[in-house]
Design a protein that fits this description.
Blueprint: E1 2-5, E2 16-19, H1 22-37, H2 44-53, E3 55-56
Antiparallel strand pairs: 1-2, 1-3
Length: about 60
């Protein structure tokens, strides 16, 4: 299992993700970024930041 906290990249966001793979987290984060943060495209540098902050789930 892996986890990611959106607040690690977007200060003030409390949404957390926990899935079995990095790929599933990235899919969910992309949907969240579009819906809740108003992004129409996900910049490569944002994807890189998210990947850096994905951790093994405790």
């Amino acid at each position: 299992m892996k986890q990611f906290n959106c607040g690690d990249v977007v200060p003030g966001c409390s949404v957390r993700f926990r899935f079995e793979s990095e790929e599933k987290i990235l899919e969910a984060v992309g949907q969240h970024a579009r819906k809740d943060h108003g992004l129409t495209e996900i910049p490569p540098q944002l994807i890189a930041q998210v990947k850096e902050k994905i951790q093994p789930a405790a």
